[in-house]
Amino acid sequence: MDLLLVEDDRLLGDGLSTALTREGYSVRWCQSASRARLAVREQAPAMMVLDLGLPGEDGLSLLKHWRKEGLTCPVLILTARDTADDKIAGLDTGADDFLTKPFDLGELCARLRALQRRHTTTNSQQLSLGRVTIDHERLIASLDGKPVDLTHLEFALLSTLARRPGHVFSRQTLEEALYEMDNSVSSNTLEVYIHHLRRKLHPECIRTVRGIGYALEPGS
Fold this sequence. Notes:
It contains eight helices and twelve strands.
């Protein structure tokens, strides 16, 4: 799971990055607010550990901005600020949990696992694949947390590919999925809608396997 660690303390950040990597997370570590903003723009994380006292901008300001922009991943605030007002401000701004320094590493990992379980249950109808999120309940796809306007056939094709991320679906299978939605599809419809998805999402989201079919890249 992609985890963004925003922590300016080099010693602590290095230790957390190593420990969380051992726990199975794919850790991206940022030491400033500007780097964190860039990292989120490049790829919305699946989870975040956020310090508040950052060079350039306070962590609460960052979190408020991200929530306003539609970032939905669980965020655990990790900070030396330990008053009740600090905790209330963090949770009201959009944090999912709050842990004060100094802390126990085992407790941090347990809290992250709990957040992951809670988020997975809450978003059981959502599938996150790198920069792309698919909400099957609301029939909405998002790129970097922002909704993308897809037609019903484009969403049907994306949903079919998302059933098995990384798996190469044959042309026939994908054409049949489109035909079930609209029996007037023509022989070149598949290529047209693959092109549309790449344009509306991003070019690397779908991989072409010549002579066989297409696959949705899980980490794209």
